[in-house]
Amino acid sequence: MKISLNWLKEYIDLSNLSTDEIVDKLTMSGLEVEDVIDENQLYKNFIVAEVKSVAKHPNADKLSVCEVYDGKENLQVICGAPNVAQGQKVVFAPIGTIIPNGNFQIKKAKIRGVESNGMICAEDELLLSDDHSGIMVLNEKLEAGKPITEVLNLNDVIFEIAVTPNRPDALSHIGVARDLSAIFNRDLHIPEINIKESKNKASEIASVEIIDITNCPRYSAKVVLNVEVKESPEWLKNRLTKIGLRPINNVVDVTNFILHEIGQPLHAFDLDLLEGKKIIVKNTTEEKEFVTLDSKVRKLPKGTLMICDAKREVAVAGVMGGENSEINPSTKNILIESAYFNPSSIRRTSKALQLSTDSSYRFERGTDPSITKYAAERAAQLIAEVSGGEVAEGIIDVYSKVIERKDITLRYQRVTKILGYEISKEKIHQILHRLGIALKDLDENSLLASVPTFRPDIEREIDLIEEIARVDGYDNIPVVPKISITLEQKVDQQKFEDEVRNIISSFGFYEMINNPLESEWEARLTGNPITLANPQSVEMSCLRTSLLAGALNSVKRNLNFGVKDMMLFEIGNVFNKKSESVIDTFDDISEKQNLILILSGKEEEKSWHSQEKYFDFYSLKGFVNAFTRKISLDNQLTDLYYSSENEIYSYYQTKNFKSKVVGVGGKVKKDVLNKFDINQDVLVFEFDLSELKQITPEAKKYIEPPKFPKIIRDFAFVFDKSIQYLEVKDFILSKASALLKNVELFDIFESESLGSDKKSMAFTLEYFDESRTLTEDEVEKDFNYLITEISKKFNAKLRG
Questions:
Q1: Are 52 and 69 in contact (CB under 8 A)?
Q2: What's the pLDDT tens digit per position in 666-688?
Q3: Is residue 479 predicted with pLDDT exceeding 90?
């Protein structure tokens, strides 16, 4: 954003301050000055000269040999401009002058054999415009030899300021002046409104109706009658050209002037072109086309906020006006629009139309809803002055949804604690007052700050402290020469995650990173979703409740690209509501970090030494067990297997720590895969890394191999399907003698031949003693006892 120093001086006294000091203070306060153009330096040595004579160049048809008087002597200069003529006053660059456009120095030279001692300049060479059709011809009354900085008022300093998105209040000259007022403790002068109004009442001439009060809480309008649309006066054109704007006409130029003066975008309608002389603010109900001021046909999506008259659309709200109501040379009566629009609405429209303007740039970041009336009156006053019009009495101001100032308590001790040094109460009061923040309820310990509506970025006490710090100067924060810290072991929060990533990668898995936002139906597959208040689309309306939906979408994309064999994993956070009630605090939601493994397609290709093999449940189980071994939790986690399906899996397994499930996975059901257009089997396992991280691995210790032989026994029983493996295992260990050291499940079998709702589970039992060799009789006795007890406990039948 370009800011003119001379323009700034209309609102604040900057005497006795150097340009460097202003630049430094602005930058250190958060308004970074990226570039400084000092016109006195830029146009140094350029002077007014008079063309005494013009002759044709002897060796070039398009060149002229001119005799130029620079106020001291006549000089011969070669010129290629077609409009050079005797008697003209021109901008002359003597030898040694640096031309702004191109940054090259003028030297004595011979052009086609004829000597040239300087250069007659065009506007584009001086960066005054893009015009290169000919040289710049000055007023013939000007005196030769005068510096052009003096005769053309090229004595300004232009700042290029980078304004951060959270500071919409600084997108104007008064906004920057307000910061300088606080920094240098100097008064800010806001132009006063002094309008001589006619007897015609604005409310009787035009009317305003707001249908969408959410996206347009306020709309102010001022009417000016009997204007004469013509060229703007020099002072107005000069203000605009200094900051890179092209003057258009006196009415439009005033609206642009107000935009850069106070930061409020305005639009002027030809009142006689508004059907019914009425403004209606509403959304489009269907897609339609609209011709904007740049004569381009725009396709408006449904729901676009529009400014309409009684019959049609006349402007895209907050972005650009329409060609059907623009100001033209025959315009006599105008309506000035000064409104506040919802930033989200304007941002959405600007993005949909791929159209960004000075107005939309400010509305997207948030303008001041309290200044619309002042801006309209200020514009009406200036338009009346430069066009000879008369201002209708009163203002049409519809404010359906009032936006209040925020009250924030500021504690003095908190300021000292945060900044590390004490600022006096008087200095705090002064800074906040200069920034436009009203102070209420002052006492010894705190104050109540009433934050103006032009500062939407100030929401909390810490924001006020930041304002105090940046205005007081970050250089005032004392340097701490020594910091005492206790030497403690550094905790690397990423260590476990990095270890997991390395382990899974070493197994041959490829990492994927998916969007944490997903559609509501995807989120409801695996949890209780948290819905976004203002989603970009229905496909990204909820936070993910699991990594599953994103992983299946990745499988789908890979299949679409012809990749059918996949080993994928992802580490990411998942979010769930704890109940169906409205979310009031962070305690109403849960956030966990998960790990998901995906297997699909072939595990091995067909080869001369092996048959092709597809990933199956046992492939998944192998990787899961290998992972738990690598993180040394295999001896603390137990497995449960479920042969019946649930909402996601046809059959599945869980990993458990004590009574808590820390991982679940299996073969994904066909109907779930169909929802993602996946036509091949997919195996999934999802760990809760947040829980795994909390488990302390048992210390590894050496166990001496048994000196005496083991005796192995197997048996298989037919159980009811509801009986779980872990339940049987725990029962066996509780009933067996001390000689039984280990029990493992090695087979699960289901078949109609076993009976309905029945399954077979086969176990291996491992007997040994550290001090002697066991006999067959004592093992057989314990083994038979277990068969009897299992049969009675679970109503199980021993298989032959």
A1: yes
A2: 999 999 999 999 999 999 999 99
A3: no
**Is this model's pTM higher than 0.85 or not?**
no
Residue with tokens 């998944």: 620
Residue 70: CATH number of its domain: 2.40.50.140
Q: Is 782 annotated as a binding residue?
A: no
Range of the domain at 761: 711-798
| In contact, 759 and 749? CB cutoff 8 Å | yes
Residue 332 domain-assigned? yes
**What's the CATH number where 737 sits?**
3.30.70.380
Same domain, 610 and 739: no
Q: Which residues pair with 267 in a beta bridge?
A: 337
Report, as an integer, the average pLDDT of 506-511.
96
272 is in an annotated binding site: no
Residues 536, 600: one domain? yes
Q: Which residues of 534-563 are buried (b: 16+ CB within 10 A; e: fewer)?
A: eeeeeeebbbbbbbbbbbbbbbbebbeeee
Q: How far apart are CA 768 and CA 562, in angstroms?
A: 54
> 400-443: per-residue pLDDT in tens?
889 999 999 999 999 999 998 999 999 999 999 999 999 998 99
pLDDT in tens, 246-303: 999 999 999 999 999 999 999 999 999 999 999 999 999 999 999 999 999 999 999 9
Cβ atoms of 421 and 476 within 8 Å: the answer is: yes
Q: Are residues 434 and 357 in the same domain?
A: no
Residue that terminates a domain, selected from 339, 364, 399: 399
* Contacts (Cβ under 8 Å, ≥6 apart) of 712: 764, 765, 766, 767
Residue 740 has pLDDT above 90, yes or no: yes
DSSP notation for 323-347: GGG---TT---EEEEEEE--HHHHH
Q: Which long-range contacts (CB under 8 A, 24 or more apart) does 233-241 make?
A: 233/386, 236/386, 238/153, 239/4, 239/7, 241/128, 241/129
208 and 313 part of one domain: yes
Is residue 707 very low, low, confident or very high in pLDDT (cuts 50, 70, 90)?
A: confident
Q: Does one domain contain both 171 and 201?
A: no
Strands 278-283, 207-210: pairing is parallel
- 634 known member of a binding site: no
Does the annotation flag 457 for ligand binding?
yes
542 contacts 518 by C-beta, under 8 angstroms: yes
Shortest CA distance to 5 belongs to which of 194, 160, 115?
Answer: 160
Give which of 432, 427, 472, 478 is closest to 25, Cα–Cα.
472
CATH code of the domain containing 378:
3.50.40.10
Residue type at position 181: S
Residue 603's nearest CA partner among 589, 617, 591 is: 617
Task: Show Cβ contacts of residue 8 under 8 Å, excluding neighbours closer than 6 positions.
Answer: 14, 173, 176, 177, 180
Query: Is 484 inside any structural domain?
Result: no
Given its phi and psi angles, is residue 383 left (phi above 0), alpha (psi -120 to 50 degrees) or beta?
alpha
517 and 660 part of one domain? yes
Do the domain assignments include residue 144? yes
Q: Looking at the 3D structure of the chain, how many domains does it have?
A: 6
Determine phi and psi for 610, rounding to 5 degrees. Answer: -155, 155
Regarding whether 554 and 656 lie in a shared domain, the answer is yes
pLDDT, position 18: 94
Same domain flag for 80 and 94: yes
How does pLDDT run across 326-353, given as a tens digit for each residue? 999 999 999 999 999 999 999 999 999 9
Q: Is residue 703 part of a domain?
A: no
Of residues 763, 769, 764, the one with CA closest to residue 709: 769
